[in-house]
Write a structure and sequence with these properties.
Blueprint lengths: L1 H6 L9 E4 L4 E4 L1 H21 L2
Antiparallel strand pairs: 1-2
Length: 52
């Protein structure tokens, strides 16, 4: 949650849902999370191959 609050000033990727009201901001970074998941999966698979 801390990281997301720091990223609120950045531009979001297309597909991320950002709703801004007067005193409320709702952020649902679905595209960012999918990309992050794919990158972490690839990196962890490469790392795991070195330890077999």
């Amino acid at each position: 949650m801390f990281l997301i609050s720091k990223m609120s000033d950045l531009n979001w990727l297309p597909g991320d849902i950002v709703i801004r009201k007067k005193n409320f901001v709702f952020i649902f970074p679905i595209t960012t999370m999918i990309i992050l998941s794919v990158v972490l999966t690839v990196v962890l698979n490469i790392i795991s191959r070195f330890f077999k």
